[in-house]
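Lab intake sheet, docking and co-folding queue.

SAMPLE TYPE: protein with bound small molecule
LIGAND NAME: pyridoxal-5'-phosphate
LIGAND FORMAT: SMILES
REQUESTED OUTPUT: full 3D complex as structure tokens
PRIORITY: normal
SUBMITTED BY: R.K., bench team

The fields below were copied directly from the construct record.
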Amino acid sequence: MDHEETLDPQDWTELRALAHRAVDDAVDYMASLRERPAWEHAPAHVKAHFAGPAPAGPQPVDEIYAEWLEYVRPYQLGNSHPRFWGWVLGTGTPMGVIAEMLAASTDAVCGIYSFVANNYVELQVLDWCKELLGYPLAAGGLLTSGCSASNLIALAVARNAKAGFDVREEGLAGAPVGTGGAPSRLTIYCSTEAHSSLTKAVEFLGMGTSSLRRVPTDDLLRIDLEALAGMVARDRDDGLRPVCVVGVAGTTNTGSIDDLPALADFCEREGLWFHVDGAFGAWAAIAPESRNLVAGMERADSLAFDLHKWMNLTYPVGCVLVRDAEAQLRTFSLTPSYLAHGEGERGLTGVDVPWLSDYGFELSRGFHALKVWMALKEHGADKFRRVIQQNIDQARYLAGLVAAAPELEQALPAALNIVCFRYVRPGLDDAALDQLNKEIELELQERGIAVPSVSTIGGRKYLHVAVANHRSRREDFDLLVREVVRLGAELPIDG
Ligand SMILES: Cc1ncc(COP(=O)(O)O)c(C=O)c1O
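RESULT FIELD (auto-filled):
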């Protein structure tokens, strides 16, 4: 063999030129978001481009880059656009781009060995999250790929901590025999409005969907506390083993916030684990005039939230915090001989920090922390406080515009940063109004004007505007309302 292969470039100068161009293009893209349509659908020829076998041979990097520009970059979900308010997504920060590139330049792994600086960045970010959200500094925690992963981790800890038997060793079959002679089912409670990731979590955890007891809500779409107490008592009478209640700080559909202090009291009384899903809403805790909205959250045994939503950090990054760090370790820590801890610091302490991989199900993890660390240092926490408060104020501004337009009707008062409203054309019944409002959503999206989504509330469809966007301005909401009123009057509907 006359030479050995590598994946490094033959010519670093050529790579450097491409990298400079890519950075320039990325900065131009971010700086001109407002001038572009809010979203563009990938046309058929673009979708068809991604067919065919794996390439056996090389392709020039310039050509590959041109494919990115032509076939991928234009057809995004649009969440970095100033008029994107669909579902609940974040908008990203330019510093996040730099951080992702820097992390990739070291092929950074995070979570193992105490000599790796990345772990200290993550530990500091976790401490910052605890401090900002008013959670105890001694809590365990982990950055994750998002709140679905955070909910899964938290519910695994909750299940194991409260099961009353060794779930790791025995599995769910180890539960004491209940009525009917079978192992008694462990149950978790959340409202009918709580997120689907909780359903996925109980499925993954082998508990089965029917172990997640969906509790009805009150007229503000918060968990009904009396119904919850009744369900827990009945389940106990029936020989089931309630382990956990999930409170939501900001539901995806409407931003409703469960009565967190009352849930904390209930869980304390009943000996249940109290988990809070605060995917985006947890961050109301840092907004100067809104902290009270999520008061009680800090009493949770575990708290799941995202940084890629309302904190606007580049996807993906979420977080889970667990008050009893030992309980988190007991659920996940596992040390095979090839990962023996304490081998990284010969001659120093001889003791490795607990590895972050001991706090979750992943061993190799990306360096999610760097973009959080850089962005928080770049702007300071106070800027994030102001941006979140600004979004809450913008949601109230939008609610005011809706109230002032006779054709528009708001579903319920905005609890946080989500406004749900519909266009009402006289003479149309609810089914026709559903159709009309869905059409309005599609027109707004497909013409690239703005991206709301649609929620179903009380069986009716409403435009759903979740304001978690640091690029939005009040004028964007003026435009949205103008366009909804125009489309609502113009769009043909049979009714
Ligand atoms: C309340 C709530 N929980 C959990 C999730 C799941 O978060 P992720 O998409 O980051 O996995 C979401 C997503 O919108 C959410 O709104």
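REVIEWER NOTE: The two ends are 77 Å apart (CA to CA).
SIGN-OFF: pending second check by T.M.
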